[in-house]
Amino acid sequence: MDDDLRERVEREAEKHALLNAVKYESDADVGAVMGPLMGENPDFRPHGDEIPGVVGGVVARVNDLSTEEKRDRLADLAPAELAEIEAEDEEDEHDLPDLPHVDDYDEVRMRAAPNPNGPWHIGHARMPAVIGTYKERYDGSFVVRFDDTDPETKRPDLAAYDAILADIDYLGFEPDEVIVASDRLETYYEHARELIDAGGAYTCSCSGETFSDLKNSGEACPHREKDAETVREEFEAMVDGAYDSGEMVLRVRTDIEHKNPALRDWVAFRMIDTPHPREEASEYRCWPMLDFQSGVDDHLTGVTHIIRGIDLQDSAKRQRFVYDYFDWEYPEVIHWGHVQVDAYDVKLSTSTLKEKIDAGELDGWDDPRAPTLKSLRRRGIRGEAVVDALIGLGTSTSNVDLSMSSIYAANRELVDDDAERYFLVRDGERFDVEGGPDAGHPPLHPDHEERGERTIPAADGVLLEPDDVPAPGERVWLKGYACVRREASGDAEAAGDGTGADGGSLVATDDGIEVVRGVDADVVHWVPAADNVDVRMRTPDGDVGGVAEPDFGATSVDDVIQFERIGFARVDDHGAAESVTYWTHP
User: Fold this and answer.
1) Cα-flanking dihedrals φ and ψ of residue 148, to 5°?
2) Beta strand 462-464 with 482-487: parallel, antiparallel or unpaired?
3) Partner of 216 at 20 to 30 A CA spacing, among 2, 162, 310, 469?
């Protein structure tokens, strides 16, 4: 092998060694380098006996480089290949699939279209979580459109508009535009008039039952062939409120013999006598159906990609008839299945939750037993954790199960480092402590000695949880204090009631930490018998009472802390009679 060939081998071997190391984030391997090296350079094959030795030396030098040095060197030798690896890495980081045909659009523009009939439950959060994530990936736009054009059966709640925007903010996203459909009735009327003029709609006074029979048999409604002028006059009468509810509708002319009866001449506008709760819309009586209103708004607001439930496939098919009449391009559509959430006995339904609140079965939308975002926020669960868990579900067309444990795991990573530690004892049993120090001093956080220690008095006795009370003669380690042995005497020993001075004492021993390591003594939490803080902890399973160590009283409202061996909790209130916390998760 001459010098020129050796130089070529070394140069090519270095490139492939770097590609191997950077792609797999590990040391390069001679065997992995030899294959592509010889494949790309057939003229090296006559020197096959010598090349492995040359490659071995190159690989050793590459493996001596740091990760950053390897990337920098590869950027010099093979920038295109490095860019390809980085693109693959970026794609691998995404839980969500790429949106279809994004290169066909100047900007990716997506919308969440909530019905403002109440604050959001956990299932509602999936849409803004996914749309907000796509917005960030594609540097696109996120539109919130309140679809509130049904003032009767899905009656809007005036407080829900701001509540939903607050929920979106809690999840960590900010809409680029907020639209209220009930502000846009005149826009829908104008497009209805254009549709009538194009021969795409007609007024119909058939009863619902009559039209259903005709539709299901593939027969045309007798009003279908009205002239455009009559249709226009009757539609204007609808707009003026001249008809009663159910007396007249405007239908989109489709295919009365379409194989799917649900697509046959569907209703675009109907009369509703119930006034809209928003004062700005309270005078209107002619209201668009959701498929018409939503279809028009998606086009006018430039929506490029729609995500909707798999059960709404017919909506896209209905709207395409309107789009064809107007010669509009229909957005890309992604359908997905429904989300089911474990750990709750309450159905994921805004109307069901509202009924339970009205009946007093739930204290409100932020009751810890309610599967709502307001509840999660009050419990100290960060919106980022909810988004991470929901993004992990992907966009499958199958129904998916969201485990609350996935939200808890994501939130634990976010709060653990900041959460100070405290003791809380439920149903405590009292014991005097003899022979030990006056107080225990466990750390505020086991990973941050610099934050200092808590002071937990022990001189006037301690409280232990019933499951932690040792049998007479047995030892436990009071965390942050010392090892103690339970001693009992007289009748109290026979009764084993553990009631302190009358039932025995805990006597400090000289044992070191090795008794814990040897599993001879359990480590337990404890609180002072006298100097403590009454606590009510609200949980999804109901309220729990207990007492906390005195330093807990110095925490601030909204602090997320950890009651050791119990779980994380958010501090909600420090009252004169008790402190209130909301259980976050284990």
Assistant:
1) -120, 40
2) unpaired
3) 310
Question: What gap in Å lies between CA 248 and CA 252, rounded to an integer?
Answer: 13
Residue 100 CB-half CA count within 13 A: 9
In Å, how far from its chain's centre is CA 241? 43
| Residue 286 structure tokens | 């002619």
Pairing between strand 527-528 and 332-336? Answer: unpaired
Q: Shortest CA distance to 224 belongs to which of 246, 194, 189, 199?
A: 199
Structural contact between residues 195 and 252, judged by C-beta atoms closer than 8 angstroms = yes
Distance CA(546)–CA(367), nearest Å, equals 20
Q: What is d(CA 228, CA 267) in angstroms, rounded to the nearest whole number?
A: 17
Q: Which of 23, 101, 18 is nearest to 59 (CA)?
A: 18
SS3 510: coil
pLDDT score for 88: 67
Interhelix angle 313-326/185-197, nearest 10 degrees: 60
Chunked mean pLDDT (size 10), the chain, 586 residues: 84 87 81 80 82 85 85 86 74 76 96 95 96 96 97 94 97 97 98 97 95 92 94 98 96 95 96 97 97 98 96 94 97 94 86 94 95 97 97 91 93 96 97 94 94 96 95 93 83 41 76 78 94 96 96 97 97 97 97
Q: What is the pLDDT of residue 90?
A: 55
Rounded to the nearest 5 percent, the helix, strand and coil shares of the chain are 40, 20, 40
pTM, entire model: 0.80
Distance separating alpha carbons of residues 250 and 287, to the nearest angstrom: 10
Residue 57 CB coordination number (10 Å) = 12
Tokens of 137: 């990936």
Tell which residue, 229, 233, 263, 231, has the closest CA to residue 250.
Answer: 231
The CA distance from 488 to 442, in Å, is 27
| Residue 232 parent element (H or E) | helix 228-239
